[in-house]
Amino acid sequence: MRLCFLVEEQYRYDGMPLDVIRQLTAWGHQVDVLWPGRSLLPLSEAVRAGSHDAWVLKTVSGGPGLTLLEAAAAVGLTTVNDVRAIRGVRDKALAAVIARGSGLPVPVTYAAARAEEFAQIPEAEFPLVVKPADGSSGRAVRLVETPDRLPAAAAEPAEPGGAAGGLLIAQPYVPNSGTDLKVYCVAGELYATERRSPLHPGHPVRERQVPLTAEVARITAEIGAVFGLDLYGVDVLLGPDGPVVVDINDFPSFRQVPDAVARVSSAVLRLARKGAEPAVPGPAAPAEPPLAAIGGDR
If we measure between CA atoms, which residue out of 275, 281, 113 comes closest to residue 185? Predict the structure, then answer.
């Protein structure tokens, strides 16, 4: 197969997706890489219908890669994930509306152009978690304890690569242990992992794979169905009233997923063949497929 990866400058040295690109190449597939943030792109030629079997995006939320992916989809090319799904989760304000409207456990969400505007939120809903609507990787996420701390939050630097003066969202803080549950979906297989919360940087957490409960699995699978995602991650907090979804990411890092590179590479190939038709997620099979069998999928 011939694939095109769009990789933002921020991920120039990251294992995801560079190790996936190397794996696909080692399996005998042709992989072209475009760097939207640091090179001249022959746009009309690059997205010519039929030149690639699928396009795969790994960029920051505010980067130019999504426009290129949308251009590829516009001429009928397959994209991984589906480009409409990516747009739905890249804008966190839009994602919150879609998720909450679908009955998913998402906090009440407010939006404003300036952090100071969140002072109008009833004080009983503080502390607030304030973050850019186009943020990623936990950057520029701020915990604001009281309304009088909002000016200080507004003075903090914005997310690198985000749109200057972009929209902010605020959600009431969900009390938790300081450990985030990150659930990854690899084309239908789910993996739960623990990691330190960006709001509690001093809390010691050993990143590891953990058992996936039926309730969290159901919520994660429903997110895939609602947004039309195949490769994605969901940040879940185990609050006093049960699991709460606080973030959704397309093509995340897949950290702590066993044999992540081989599994993601194989999933990209399957999705490219299927035209990125959304999978029906479910718990991962207990037995890991042999890498030789995965590698032979061309």
Answer: 281
